[in-house]
């Protein structure tokens, strides 16, 4: 299980470990070029594997104007 925090919605939930960052983004409805994925203060690339117990922040970076 991992903990995911979505910003700017301020939602937090747990989910089964999806495998890679790219799969996480797919499951939470974000596109890789439109969101930052952060673990322990560092940015993650779409190809990286997630680990059980991770606390991940998914932050939108595009304008919603």
Total DSSP E strands: 5
Largest sheet at a glance? 5 strands, mixed
Number of domain units = 1
Distance between the termini: 34 Å
Q: Give the overall silhouette.
A: globular
Strand content: 35-45%
Give start-end ranges of low-pLDDT stretches.
none
CATH class reads Alpha Beta
Structural class: mainly beta
Secondary-structure element pattern, one letter each: EEHEEE
> What is the CATH homology-level superfamily?
Beta-grasp domain
SSE map:
Layout: E1 2-7, E2 11-15, H1 21-27, E3 35-39, E4 42-43, E5 55-60
Parallel strand pairs: 1-5
Antiparallel strand pairs: 1-2, 3-4, 3-5
Features:
65 residues; single chain; mainly beta; Ubiquitin-like (UB roll); globular; 1 helix
Compose a concise summary of this entry:
This protein has one helix at 21-27; strands spanning 2-7, 11-15, 35-39, 42-43, 55-60. By secondary structure, it is mainly β.
Q: If you had to describe this structure to a student in words, what would you say it looks like?
A:
The chain has 65 residues and is mainly β. It contains one helix and five strands, in the order E-E-H-E-E-E. The protein has one helix spanning 21-27; strands at 2-7, 11-15, 35-39, 42-43, 55-60. It has a five-stranded mixed beta sheet with strand order 2-1-5-3-4, with no helix packed on it. A hairpin with a 2-residue loop joins strand 3 (35-39) and strand 4. The protein is globular and about 35 Å long. The mean pLDDT is 93.
